């Protein structure tokens, strides 16, 4: 087998673009890793523009078919889509390259920003910038709840699921995994009794027109490596399980089974299987575990980490790298004399355990998906989970607002300046459609200006 895929046969093949080698694809995926801003919707739009319309590496239907599969998986769908297309074009090495380069630039950037945050975060200028960013993040999370809700809550049944999820997590303090399982059960039953109400809604709305024949076109035969075979599947699962066990054993033997690094490995393995609906959906679970249970970082630091995640390329779930860095730094995993190395190691450990399942799901499930280009099964549970996610994200927005507006708790003073920045940020997002990057930049300047005029805001 070669490391490139050739154009399909037929009349369309004559006009299809030339075959692409793995080394050629490498540079595209590397570039994408540095420009993939805008969250999953923006990242998928960039890939659609580049791969379907401009380069014509894959046809519209094949692109959407891969996207539909990635949407029903736990994990970041944009990163998984890149992995899927890279795997389809250049086997598993292609998937490792495309999926890995979607993540690695963000990891390196976040490690650097996390170091600045931990080493210099107490400086007035840095603290002032983060003072303005926190209200912006609160507005961004609220806008995410509205954006997902407007797409997902198509009828009264789904509104009821969202409301029930909100009550469960806000009032009853039900753990996030239980909410996901409960929503899936509701969706399964609803799919049997009310199939129209729980049908999977529209996706990301790509255009129907593609720009001509593609390298992987509608009628391009599935390459041999992408066809289902039981033997390769078993070997893949054994290899993946072996990697996970080896990593956990290594952490346990070197630092102890109850060490911060070993606990992070186990915790983020669980989190990786619960990221239905994107990063905003799993953040409450990460908060419950990382802030409340393990106390690797504070609630304020969690908000700051989400702000950094919003300003870097790559999937937003990369905020877990910040969680790992801060936990490794404060936990002194490599001793008090090496806080940066300890933080960088913890961030790398967290990233490995978070994204390993994503690669496994693509490499294991891709051949099954390539056997049919029809509708996927189990869409009703996914629809209900997505509805529940709306309620969970709304709870997260309220949680952030509480910590931003009452930084010392409800018993402390109300921060009117932070509240005003939040309201203006909400207005900018909802009314004027300002981009997230621009919003965070403006709010950072506003926070810096406010703290320079009123230094008491930082105390």
Could you provide a short overview of the structure?
The chain is mostly helical and 459 residues long. It has 16 helices and no strands. The chain has one domain.
Report on the structure:
By secondary structure, this protein is mainly α. The chain has one domain (103-203, 229-458). The protein has 16 helices and no strands. It has helices at 22-35, 39-54, 60-71, 77-120, 124-152, 156-170, 176-193, 230-255, 260-272, 279-293, 299-310, 319-330, 339-370, 379-405, 416-430, 436-453. Helix 5 runs antiparallel to helix 16, helix 6 packs across helix 14 (379-405) and helix 8 (230-255) packs antiparallel against helix 13 (339-370). The longest helix is centred in the N-terminal third of the chain and has 44 residues, at 77-120. The radius of gyration is 22 Å and the shape is globular.
- Helical segment count: 16
Q: Sheet with the most strands?
A: none
Unreliable stretches, pLDDT < 50, 5 or more residues? 8-13, 202-210
Integer average pLDDT: 85
Distance between the termini: 63 Å
Query: Tally of extended strands?
Result: 0
User: How much of the sequence is in beta strands?
Assistant: under 5%
Structural class: mainly alpha
Shape descriptor:
globular
SSE order in H/E notation?
Answer: HHHHHHHHHHHHHHHH
Radius of gyration, CA atoms, in whole angstroms: 22 Å
| Tally of distinct domains | 1
Instruction: Give the proportion of residues in helices.
Output: 55-70%
């Amino acid at each position: 087998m070669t490391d490139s895929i050739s154009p399909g046969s037929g009349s369309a093949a004559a006009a299809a673009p030339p075959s692409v080698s793995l080394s050629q694809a490498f540079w595209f995926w590397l570039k994408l890793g540095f420009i993939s801003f805008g969250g999953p919707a923006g990242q998928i739009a960039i890939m659609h523009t580049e791969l379907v319309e401009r380069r014509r590496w894959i046809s519209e239907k094949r692109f959407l078919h891969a996207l539909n599969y990635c949407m029903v998986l736990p994990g970041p769908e944009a990163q998984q889509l890149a992995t899927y297309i890279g795997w389809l074009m250049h086997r598993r090495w292609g998937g490792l390259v495309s999926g890995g380069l979607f993540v690695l630039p963000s990891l390196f950037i976040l490690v650097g920003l996390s170091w600045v945050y931990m080493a210099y975060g107490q400086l007035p200028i840095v603290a002032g910038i983060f003072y303005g960013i926190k209200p912006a993040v609160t507005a961004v999370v609220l806008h995410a709840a509205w954006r997902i809700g407007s797409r997902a809550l198509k009828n009264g049944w789904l509104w009821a699921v969202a409301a029930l999820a909100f009550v469960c997590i806000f009032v009853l303090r039900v753990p996030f995994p239980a909410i996901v399982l409960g929503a899936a059960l509701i969706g399964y039953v609803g799919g049997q009794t009310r199939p129209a109400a729980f049908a999977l809604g529209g996706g990301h709305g790509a255009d129907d027109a593609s720009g001509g024949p593609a390298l992987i076109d509608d009628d391009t035969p599935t390459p041999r490596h992408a066809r289902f075979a039981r033997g390769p599947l078993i070997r893949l699962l054994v290899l993946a399980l072996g990697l996970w066990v080896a990593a956990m054993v290594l952490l346990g033997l070197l630092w102890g089974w109850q060490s911060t690094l070993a606990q992070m490995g186990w915790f983020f393995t669980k989190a990786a299987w619960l990221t239905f609906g994107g990063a905003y959906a799993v953040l409450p679970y990460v908060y419950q575990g990382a802030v409340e249970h393990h106390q690797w970082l504070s609630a304020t630091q969690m908000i700051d980490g989400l702000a950094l995640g919003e300003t870097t390329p790559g999937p937003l779930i990369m905020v877990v790298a910040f969680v790992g860095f801060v936990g490794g730094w404060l936990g002194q995993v490599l001793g008090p004399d090496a806080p940066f190395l300890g933080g960088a190691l913890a961030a790398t450990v967290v990233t490995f355990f978070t994204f390993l399942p994503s690669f496994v799901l693509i490499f294991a499930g891709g051949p099954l998906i390539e056997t049919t280009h029809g509708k996927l099964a189990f869409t009703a549970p996914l629809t209900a989970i997505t509805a529940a996610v709306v309620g969970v994200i709304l709870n997260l927005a309220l949680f952030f607002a509480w910590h931003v507006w009452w930084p010392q708790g409800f018993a402390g003073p109300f921060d009117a300046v932070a509240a005003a920045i939040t309201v203006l940020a909400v207005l900018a997002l909802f009314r004027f459609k300002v981009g997230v990057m621009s919003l965070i930049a403006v709010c950072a300047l506003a926070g810096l200006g406010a703290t320079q005029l009123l230094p008491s805001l930082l105390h």
